[in-house]
Predict the 3D structure of the following.
Amino acid sequence: SYIGDGLSHVAFGAMSIALVLGMIQQKMYLVFPITTVAAILILKSGQNKRVQGDAIVGMVSTGALALGYLLMNLFPPTANISGDVCSTLFGSTSILTLSKAEVWLCVIASIIVLIIFVMLYPKIFAVTFDENFSKATGLKADQINLILAVIIAVIVVLAMNLVGSLLISALVIFPALSVMQLFKSFKAVLIGAAVLSEICTVTGMLVAILCSTPVGATIVTVDIIAFIICWLIRAMKA
């Protein structure tokens, strides 16, 4: 959750640079590599014993957020600077603002991420469950962590246009946290979180279209409601 939140702020800074450079239609070509490099650097820096990982994420996230806002004020891409900042932070007000190319990019990248995750599932499970034991058995845990960081970077970049940089971490945290109220096994949580995430996203989109509400905020609100329901179910069973 820490790295997801940190990368969302990095993506905002990268998006600001793209807008300042006039790369409105080609912003993904700049945002994706910057966010991916940031994910790798955060992962490597987190191994520094003198600086804790959460401190690294905090410095990177706040620094990127401040730099992005500063650039957009010094070199405003349009006259409506408030609208640019708001849409970058909180996403599109309508799903119809997404281009066909961005939709296809999301589909292709999602398929690639899913294939990689399925292929590496046993190793990902081992590293997530006990990283030190995985290293002791000869598993290259650092490489698996690197792949996970890149996957998170891809998710952040793909979701940014829809929900905005400040709300991305909610999409990463809420589904898993909700399902963890009901299931204990890694596999059940993994599958349940994916299914719940799809349900909440589709529901949020439909509500946003019908009620003309911001897409990102609506999806996150549905995620919050889903978490409350899961928590209540667990409380009733206890």
